[in-house]
Amino acid sequence: MLHLRVIAPGELRDDVMGLLRANAGVTHIVVHPDAAVDPTGDEITADIARECADDIVRGLKALGVKESGAMTLEVLDTVLSTRAWHAEDAAAGQPADAVIWDELVSRTREESTLTFTFVMFLCIACLIAAIGVVTDSPVTVVGAMVVGPEFGPLAGLAVALVQRRSHLAQRAALALLVGFPVAMAVTIAFTLIFEALGWVTLQTTRELNEVDFIFQVGPFSFVIALLAGAAGMLSLVSSKSAALVGVFISVTTVPAAGFAVVAATIGDWHVAAQSTLQLAVNLTGITIAGVLVLWVYRLRRTR
């Protein structure tokens, strides 16, 4: 279940209470009249089934609570209450299938922002990938996949396209268009340093036997990107974050960027181009899959 906290002006008290009481998935309603100081008003709390959360949030927004007060939602790990059990049972649908669109937008907006931390994670992941390439180590490449933060902006872009939120789309696109070039430039600099120190003896990518799959673009490259993108979006929608690890290690986004850098430094431009294409295919496939998954959820809700 979720814990809902509403701050609303006193004149909206009856409307908010009516909205909450009318929904069978709501219980444990508590009202603290005039308890809020900034903004002034009442504090109203309730425990709600996840299945009905989106309807309640949209109803509160229609009442003007977003502009005149505030709404917060918190996940409740443990609720010991017969009334809560009945509320969950009365709510239509299943918790894992419920999409709270405002929660999804809020989460992806935070993860899609171009920040110093995001760029640092991407640089570190790209460097690990490059080291995995020059050492022909698939284990190191997998480590780069896990560290890479690129799924956040891709998910944000998918949500923005479905919800038609241009600002979120611009934010996500900026993170990708700035983050990857910066990470690849930093990786180029460090790779050249490693080569100057004699740590890298790779002369051609033909010497690689374990990680050459990274730049080999084929029909399954796009299929895997679609499947990974769908799994990633499902994990976000259902709040099952464990599946994201599998998404990270199933597509070669960051490794492709690292491979392109290494191939370019040794003058293997054909392979560098193939790796860049692999990167583009994966980014595109993940975004398309995310859009399709969200579109299906939206269509299902409409019906």
Shape: elongated
Structural class: alpha+beta
Strand proportion, as a percent range, falls in: 5-15%
Task: Give the low-confidence spans.
Answer: none
Instruction: Give the beta-strand count.
Output: 4
What average pLDDT do the residues reach? Answer: 88
Q: Name the helicity range.
A: 55-70%
What is the strand arrangement across the widest sheet?
2-3-1-4
The structural domain count equals: 2
Major pleated sheet: 4 strands, antiparallel
The count of helical stretches stands at 13
H/E element sequence: EHEEHHEHHHHHHHHHH
Identify the quaternary structure here.
Answer: single chain
Pfam families: DUF389
InterPro entries: DUF389
Protein name: Putative membrane protein
Transmembrane segments: 114-135, 141-162, 174-193, 213-237, 244-267, 279-297
Defining key terms:
alpha+beta, single chain, Alpha-Beta Plaits, 2 domains, four-stranded antiparallel sheet, 4 strands, 303 residues
Short summary of the structure?
With 303 residues, the chain is of the alpha+beta class. Helices cover 62% and strands 11% of the residues.
How would you characterize the overall build of this protein?
The chain is of the alpha+beta class and 303 residues long. It is 62% helix and 11% strand. It folds into 2 domains: 97 residues, Alpha-Beta Plaits (2-Layer Sandwich), CATH 3.30.70.120; 200 residues. The two termini are 24 Å apart. Keywords: Membrane, Transmembrane, Transmembrane helix.
What's the SSE blueprint?
Blueprint: E1 2-8, H1 13-21, E2 26-37, E3 40-48, H2 53-62, H3 65-68, E4 70-75, H4 82-90, H5 101-111, H6 116-134, H7 138-147, H8 151-163, H9 166-196, H10 219-237, H11 242-248, H12 254-265, H13 269-302
Antiparallel strand pairs: 1-3, 1-4, 2-3
